[in-house]
Specification:
The chain is an all-alpha fold. The chain is built from five helices and two strands; from the N terminus they run H-H-E-E-H-H-H.
Amino acid sequence: MKTPKNLKTLAIIFLALAFVGFLDATYLTTQHYLGAIPPCVLTEGCSAVLTSEWSKVFGLPVALLGAVYYLVLLILVVAYLKTGREKFLLTASFMTALGIISSIWLVVLQFFIIKEICFYCMISATTSTALFVVGLFILVKSRRENQTPKSFNPSQVT
């Protein structure tokens, strides 16, 4: 199945962003299970954030949940690129709402509750925001391409 060029370009950008998010979250997950705190770059709050009571949900590291989220996005976009079936890309685009809501919450926690900033967490928040924006472009582009203009039939004019 042939995919529209502009939609394919957006999908590749989406794929690259999801890959960056996956690498970041996987790194943090690995460090968590190794019992290590990664060195902070540009900020000093990585240890405070990554060991806070907010760093786990139902006993699972937030980073692991992020890695799974980004992996699902990667799988969906690859499925779209392989098959041309827009439902995969549209599902991934809709899922970015979950990512941005989670990121907003986690950034609020860092700034106002924990009062420390984790560099790696901010990479994820930035990636989630970029994915959300690209996802919106994908949804708009897909909708425009799938709208069929109504044909004009002069005999129906009264």
